[in-house]
Write a structure and sequence with these properties.
This protein is mainly beta and about 375 residues long. The protein contains two helices and 25 strands. The chain has helices at about 5-15, 365, and strands at about 35-40, 40-45, 50-60, 65, 95-100, 100-105, 110, 120, 135-140, 140-150, 160-170, 175-180, 185-190, 195, 215, 220-225, 230-240, 255, 280, 295, 300-310, 310-315, 345-350, 370, 375-385. Bound molecules: 2-acetamido-2-deoxy-beta-D-glucopyranose (6 copies). One 2-acetamido-2-deoxy-beta-D-glucopyranose binds near residues 122, 124, 126, 127 and 130. Keywords: Carbohydrate metabolism, Isomerase, Signal.
Length: about 375
């Protein structure tokens, strides 16, 4: 059912008259379950489940809109999806892996849930990407989602955390701003926005794979070595120009520049089964507000520039996509098309994975938030043509 703007206005007026907070008047989503925000050159749609982005429309080189992110047409399917790949959501309260499912804070060792081969992934059960967030503000170009995470709701993540994410759009740019507090306890807190891209919207007849895209990380020669379970070992490596993990040495490097290289299969672990990328690149010495990553596609002509306050970026090239998920109706060349292995890339600006277990990286204080402190995270994607 679609609520008319008249009813919305009446609800808002009634809320004010009754002295209720204005958020009581936030309208329900549209008939497809989505909230839509837009600005010149960009339209973005969201659902409360995981505070997830479902669709992101920007202009391609032919002037037509391209939906550049993965997702499902049916908003109700997100919570039912058996192979939930954290589609464009906010995982939390501590994103990525916690090594050996434990951490030590202020002298106490906490055992977290082992849900990823001996490690904890995205905080374990009851992670934020599997919950229905509240919409607390909405305008034509901005939406805010909030979550209150009870102490110990995920095993041994102690202390209540209150967090919010504001998505806004302006002039071909998608802005993402998160804040969080932990008023009662010091707790591990590290967030990201976990978007999966295919800038061709699966319409390139030459290939559905992501390897034809270009990728440049101008400040990221260094990356974290990881073990077979994608857990950082502690070692920081430097990618030689032209090597598999090099995206720094030249602009417009093909994302798949090393597809035929020895070691490409297995480059993201799983004893040779994970092909491509599932790792963390450090951003070194980037000027404030610099573009730290550019993803592009000659086929659609779309270019995406990332700016972030975060010290690094996770790249995951969708090796575990098994061809069971459909592409959206506005994507692909036929209704039967599926999300196949290595056909997308998740790009996640975040702090060093498992930094709470690596004091030698000096990230511990950034990854622990307690009473009187506010955690902040900010990124933006600006779209244009290659
Ligand atoms: C997140 O929570 C859901 C629901 O409890 C669970 O099925 C899933 O395994 C958890 N972890 C990850 C990494 O998705
Ligand atoms: C949404 O708000 C309600 C009412 O304040 C609260 O009970 C609920 O826990 C909130 N949901 C989340 C995910 O924080
Ligand atoms: C957290 O919950 C688990 C059960 O899920 C319990 O064993 C543990 O004692 C709780 N920890 C704290 C600090 O309350
Ligand atoms: C919008 O972006 C374009 C391209 O970056 C720029 O030329 C233009 O000045 C911007 N307009 C506004 C209102 O910011
Ligand atoms: C990889 O090998 C295939 C088959 O020989 C070839 O078509 C392709 O151009 C190669 N790709 C790169 C990036 O070298
Ligand atoms: C952490 O700080 C120490 C002391 O300032 C420094 O020697 C070390 O290089 C830093 N580690 C990293 C990974 O930046």
């Amino acid at each position: 059912m679609r609520y008319s703007s008249m009813i919305i206005a009446a609800l808002a007026e009634a809320a004010v008259v009754c002295g209720l907070p204005v958020e009581a008047a936030i309208p329900p989503p549209d008939a497809t379950g989505r909230y839509t925000i837009s600005a010149p050159g960009i339209k973005a749609q969201f659902i409360p489940y995981g505070a997830s982005l479902t669709n992101l429309f920007v202009a391609g080189k032919d002037g037509k809109d391209v939906d550049v992110v993965l997702g499902y047409d049916d908003a109700d399917y997100y919570p039912k999806d058996p192979g939930h790949p954290v589609y464009n959501s906010i995982p939390g309260r501590y994103v990525n892996r916690i090594g050996h499912a434990q951490y030590t804070l202020d002298g106490v060792t906490y055992k977290t849930e082992d849900n990823d081969g001996g490690n904890t992934l995205h905080s374990g059960t009851n992670n934020w990407s599997f919950r229905f967030w509240n919409v607390t503000a909405l305008s034509a170009d901005s939406i805010t989602f909030a979550i209150s995470d009870a102490s110990n709701s995920s095993l041994n993540m102690i202390g209540r955390v209150d967090a919010s994410v504001t998505y806004s759009v302006t002039n071909s740019t998608w802005n993402i701003k998160m804040t969080a507090t932990s008023p009662d306890n010091r707790t591990p807190l590290m967030l990201t926005q976990h978007t999966y891209f295919n800038l061709d919207a699966y319409k390139n007849p030459a290939t559905p794979l992501i390897w034809d895209h270009t990728l440049h990380l101008p400040y990221s020669k260094r990356y974290l070595e990881a073990d077979q379970g994608a857990l950082p070992t502690g070692k920081i490596l430097t990618a030689a120009p032209g090597s598999i993990n090099d995206f720094a040495s030249a602009p417009n490097l093909q994302f798949g520049h090393s597809v035929n290289a020895t070691g490409f299969k297995g480059n993201c672990g799983a004893n040779g089964v994970c092909e491509g990328y599932n790792g963390y690149w450090i951003i070194d010495d980037a000027p404030k507000d610099a573009v730290v990553l550019t993803l592009g596609s000659a086929f659609s002509g779309v270019k995406a520039d990332l700016r972030t306050t975060q010290p690094g970026i996770v790249l995951y090239s969708c090796s575990w996509m098994d061809g069971s998920a459909p592409v959206k109706a506005d994507q692909g060349l036929s209704a039967a098309q599926k999300v196949v292995k290595s056909s997308c890339v998740a790009i996640e600006a975040q702090d060093y994975p498992d930094g709470i277990n690596h004091p030698e990286w000096n990230r511990t204080s950034a990854q622990i938030t307690g009473p009187g402190q506010t955690y902040n995270w900010e990124s933006s994607w600006t779209f244009g043509l290659v």
